[in-house]
Design brief:
This protein is α+β, with helices and mostly antiparallel strands. It has a single domain, classed as Immunoglobulin-like (Sandwich), CATH 2.60.40. It is 21% helix and 52% strand. It has a six-stranded antiparallel sheet, with no helix packed on it. The longest helix is centred in the first third of the chain and has 15 residues.
Length: 92
Protein backbone atom coordinates (compact mmCIF):
# COMPACT_ATOMS: atom_id res chain seq x y z
CA UNK A 1 0.00 0.00 0.00
CA UNK A 2 2.85 2.37 0.86
CA UNK A 3 4.42 1.84 -2.58
CA UNK A 4 1.17 2.91 -4.29
CA UNK A 5 1.12 6.12 -2.24
CA UNK A 6 4.69 6.89 -3.25
CA UNK A 7 3.83 6.33 -6.92
CA UNK A 8 0.76 8.57 -6.56
CA UNK A 9 2.83 11.36 -5.00
CA UNK A 10 5.55 11.06 -7.66
CA UNK A 11 2.91 11.08 -10.40
CA UNK A 12 1.28 14.24 -9.03
CA UNK A 13 4.68 15.93 -8.66
CA UNK A 14 5.52 14.98 -12.23
CA UNK A 15 2.32 16.60 -13.47
CA UNK A 16 2.70 19.71 -11.27
CA UNK A 17 6.27 20.37 -12.41
CA UNK A 18 5.66 19.09 -15.97
CA UNK A 19 8.41 16.49 -15.66
CA UNK A 20 8.49 13.35 -17.84
CA UNK A 21 6.83 10.45 -16.00
CA UNK A 22 9.32 7.93 -17.34
CA UNK A 23 12.00 9.73 -15.33
CA UNK A 24 10.15 10.51 -12.12
CA UNK A 25 8.44 7.10 -11.95
CA UNK A 26 11.43 5.11 -13.33
CA UNK A 27 9.35 3.73 -16.21
CA UNK A 28 10.61 2.45 -19.55
CA UNK A 29 9.91 4.58 -22.61
CA UNK A 30 9.32 2.71 -25.87
CA UNK A 31 9.38 4.48 -29.25
CA UNK A 32 8.56 2.72 -32.52
CA UNK A 33 9.30 3.67 -36.09
CA UNK A 34 6.73 1.62 -37.96
CA UNK A 35 7.52 -2.02 -37.34
CA UNK A 36 11.21 -1.77 -38.30
CA UNK A 37 12.83 -0.03 -35.32
CA UNK A 38 12.22 0.06 -31.56
CA UNK A 39 13.96 2.31 -29.03
CA UNK A 40 13.69 1.29 -25.38
CA UNK A 41 14.88 3.88 -22.89
CA UNK A 42 15.36 3.42 -19.14
CA UNK A 43 15.93 -0.35 -19.31
CA UNK A 44 17.64 -2.65 -16.83
CA UNK A 45 19.43 -5.02 -19.16
CA UNK A 46 18.90 -7.70 -21.78
CA UNK A 47 17.59 -11.08 -20.62
CA UNK A 48 17.30 -12.93 -23.95
CA UNK A 49 18.52 -12.19 -27.46
CA UNK A 50 17.86 -14.05 -30.70
CA UNK A 51 16.80 -13.10 -34.22
CA UNK A 52 13.16 -13.93 -33.32
CA UNK A 53 12.86 -12.76 -29.69
CA UNK A 54 14.42 -10.13 -27.46
CA UNK A 55 13.52 -9.81 -23.79
CA UNK A 56 14.51 -6.69 -21.88
CA UNK A 57 14.27 -6.17 -18.12
CA UNK A 58 12.62 -2.97 -16.84
CA UNK A 59 11.17 -1.52 -13.65
CA UNK A 60 7.73 -2.75 -14.80
CA UNK A 61 8.92 -6.28 -15.50
CA UNK A 62 10.02 -7.94 -18.71
CA UNK A 63 9.39 -6.41 -22.14
CA UNK A 64 9.24 -9.11 -24.83
CA UNK A 65 9.72 -8.18 -28.48
CA UNK A 66 8.95 -10.86 -31.07
CA UNK A 67 9.74 -10.58 -34.75
CA UNK A 68 12.00 -11.70 -37.57
CA UNK A 69 15.62 -10.92 -38.42
CA UNK A 70 15.99 -8.63 -35.38
CA UNK A 71 19.32 -7.17 -34.33
CA UNK A 72 20.53 -4.91 -31.56
CA UNK A 73 21.87 -1.83 -33.29
CA UNK A 74 22.81 0.07 -30.17
CA UNK A 75 23.15 -0.97 -26.54
CA UNK A 76 23.89 1.72 -23.97
CA UNK A 77 23.39 1.91 -20.23
CA UNK A 78 20.16 3.86 -20.69
CA UNK A 79 18.78 2.81 -24.10
CA UNK A 80 18.60 -0.02 -26.63
CA UNK A 81 17.80 0.21 -30.34
CA UNK A 82 16.32 -2.89 -31.97
CA UNK A 83 16.00 -3.16 -35.76
CA UNK A 84 14.29 -5.80 -37.90
CA UNK A 85 10.71 -6.85 -38.56
CA UNK A 86 8.91 -6.30 -35.23
CA UNK A 87 5.70 -8.29 -34.91
CA UNK A 88 4.74 -7.75 -31.27
CA UNK A 89 5.73 -6.06 -28.02
CA UNK A 90 4.42 -7.48 -24.77
CA UNK A 91 4.78 -6.56 -21.10
CA UNK A 92 5.18 -9.71 -19.01
Amino acid sequence: MRNKKIVDVKSKMSEAFELPKEITLDLPKISLIGNIQCLIENHRGIIEYSKERIRVNSSMGVIRIDGEDMNLRNIASDDIIIIGHIESIEFI
